[in-house]
């Protein structure tokens, strides 16, 4: 009896032990499997399945002149297979996958908007993504057909693994198409590509690493060149950052001396004032928080500077990641129509970006692009709302900290922006010539666009001049006449009416008046946001 019970207990205990061991090892195995699943650099897990007849899809489309329809050599593109080999253009340091650490469990939606793209180029874009990305990192490839003439260009690709095709019934332009793609995306990260790209080996992992480390990062690959004539794939310098000039034209900028000094090797990601093109990875949540792209941007242009400025000014950052390489066919002209006229569309888009993000510095945009002044850019209310909701920084901060290479043009205005005293700013009063002081606010237009010109000795607010009538004490805003009642000078921080030698002074309430200058009086000290020339530091005779 006693022996029986002991045997029973031993049997129970060993069954229990077996169950525990089995459960633990199976759990460990699952964890290991997940770990392996996220190991970087392993062979692609997409098994190419012939789901379509490539030759039949690409067909025999030919141009009389090879460049007419697509602005690149169509014959060269058509001759290449969709899965051609590419030279690995990365720095050797990028070859070691352990450099990228643990990858996220989240997936990426690749979004490709296209309008009348050459089928061979479009197919190569998709196949390069499927073949060169570990399958479990890719949620889907969204092909956003922006109302191409032939619906089948996109539709026939929907049989490829992970590919979803969405078609616009009317032409929306690349910006609204990408927004639509982002709204449809199920992945946690969004990667935007043009429809004539080829991603290179290990392209996504280094981008993912950056965005996972800091989810408020916009991460751009280095964009290699696919020759528009021969389709040869060539490396570009991995040490250039994205920038722009006052016309808001994108340009490449070499890394600053300081950045080069800080860099320990050329494979390291670096901060960039703007994305180096329209190809980048961003977290879907962060992109949505930023209000995505401005949906008022038509057809082509403006969105890459918009997302860059928005990221930097509203708490994020922009990086170029040299270990990530994506080839792109750069062209000399747009191969498609602009329903509203080519130059106008781009200029209008740029005006929207300038109006929302450049603050008082938009004056330089208008000087570089005078035709934009009179253009109707549409409502910007939504963009301003995003800006104030996210409490975005002023452009001056960006100039000082992120893009010091963008120099202010030498112009006659020696100071401009807000005219402030401590936390108070001078502002115009609607439908009146009066001015008053109020708490400074980035988004209050009546506080911006003050300018002091040494040349004309005037203080302007938009088109009006600060004027003090004889025997009046309070300055008002009136049409500029160059009269002595509108002549001012600045002495240190004092603002002096030349004819009377009196100083601009804040009162106890919101009013502003003229009074005798008193050395060091805080109520007579004024600052403009931006000084274009060093001020005359010699103290003048202030009694
Ligand atoms: C550069 C960017 C591009 C975008 C653009 C400015 C690179 C490599 N490319 O363009 O991503 O930022 O500047 O907006 O930096 N498309 C449409 N609908 C249209 C017009 C174009 O879907 O109405 C597609 C087009 O088929 C292409 C993509 O948008 O896939 C970008 O257009 P692009 O290749 O003509 O522009 P690109 O390379 O000059
Ligand atoms: Mn392109």
Automatic annotation (TrEMBL):
Q: Does the keyword Aminoacyl-tRNA synthetase apply?
A: no
Task: State where the protein is found.
Answer: Golgi apparatus membrane
Known pathway: Protein modification; protein glycosylation
Which residues span the membrane? 7-25
The biological processes this protein is annotated with in GO are: protein O-linked glycosylation
Per UniProt, residues of the Ricin B lectin domain are 413-529
Which keywords appear in this protein's UniProt record, sorted alphabetically? Disulfide bond, Glycoprotein, Glycosyltransferase, Golgi apparatus, Lectin, Manganese, Membrane, Signal-anchor, Transferase, Transmembrane, Transmembrane helix
| One Pfam family of this chain | Glycos_transf_2
Give the protein name, as stated in the record. Answer: Polypeptide N-acetylgalactosaminyltransferase
Q: Which organism is it from?
A: Cryptotermes secundus
């Amino acid at each position: 009896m006693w022996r029986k019970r002991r045997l029973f207990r031993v049997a129970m205990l060993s069954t229990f032990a077996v169950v525990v061991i089995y459960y633990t090892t199976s759990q460990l195995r699952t964890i290991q499997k997940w770990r392996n699943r996220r190991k970087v650099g392993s062979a692609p897990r997409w098994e190419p399945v012939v789901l379509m007849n490539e030759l039949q899809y690409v067909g025999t489309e030919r141009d009389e002149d090879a460049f007419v329809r697509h602005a690149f050599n169509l014959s060269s593109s058509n001759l290449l297979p969709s899965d051609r080999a590419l030279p690995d253009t990365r720095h050797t340091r990028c070859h070691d996958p352990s450099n990228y650490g643990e990858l996220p469990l989240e997936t990426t939606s690749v979004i490709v908007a296209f309008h009348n793209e050459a089928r061979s180029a479009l197919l190569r874009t998709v196949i390069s993504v499927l073949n060169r990305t570990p399958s479990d990192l890719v949620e889907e490839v969204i092909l956003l057909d922006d109302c191409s003439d032939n619906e089948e260009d996109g539709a026939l690709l929907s049989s490829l693994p992970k590919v979803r095709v969405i078609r616009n019934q009317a032409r929306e332009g690349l910006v609204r198409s990408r927004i639509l793609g982002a709204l449809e995306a199920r992945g946690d990260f969004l990667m935007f590509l043009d429809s004539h790209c080829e991603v290179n080996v290990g392209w996504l992992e280094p981008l993912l690493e950056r965005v996972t480390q800091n989810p408020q990062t916009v991460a751009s690959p280095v964009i290699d060149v696919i020759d528009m004539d021969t389709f040869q794939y060539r490396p570009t310098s991995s040490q250039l950052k994205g920038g722009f000039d006052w016309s808001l034209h994108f340009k490449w900028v070499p890394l600053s001396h300081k950045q080069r000094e800080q860099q320990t090797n050329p494979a390291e990601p670096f901060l960039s004032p703007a994305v180096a093109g329209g190809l980048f990875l961003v977290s879907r949540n962060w992109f949505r928080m930023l209000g995505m792209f401005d949906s008022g941007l038509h057809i082509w242009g403006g969105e890459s500077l918009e997302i860059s400025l928005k990221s930097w000014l509203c708490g994020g950052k922009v990086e170029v990641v040299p270990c990530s390489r994506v080839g792109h066919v750069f062209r000399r002209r747009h191969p498609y129509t602009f329903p509203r006229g080519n130059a106008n569309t781009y200029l209008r888009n740029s005006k929207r970006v300038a109006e929302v993000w450049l603050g008082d510095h938009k004056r330089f945009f208008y000087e570089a692009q005078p035709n934009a002044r009179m253009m109707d850019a549409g409502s910007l209310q939504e963009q301003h709302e995003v800006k104030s909701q996210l409490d975005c920084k002023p452009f001056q901060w960006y100039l000082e900290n992120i893009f010091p290479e963008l120099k202010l043009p030498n112009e006659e205005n020696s100071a401009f922006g807000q005219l402030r005293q401590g936390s108070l700013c001078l502002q115009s009063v609607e439908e009146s010539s009066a001015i008053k002081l109020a708490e400074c606010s980035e988004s209050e237009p009546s506080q911006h666009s003050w300018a002091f010109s040494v040349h004309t000795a005037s203080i302007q607010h938009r088109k009006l001049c600060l004027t003090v009538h004889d025997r009046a004490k309070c300055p008002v805003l009136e049409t500029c006449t160059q009269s002595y009642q509108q002549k001012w000078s600045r002495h240190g921080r004092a603002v002096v009416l030349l004819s009377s030698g009196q100083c601009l002074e804040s009162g106890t309430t919101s009013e502003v008046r003229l009074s005798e200058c008193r050395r060091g009086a805080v109520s007579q000290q004024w600052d403009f946001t931006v000084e274009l020339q060093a001020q005359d530091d010699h103290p003048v005779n202030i009694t």
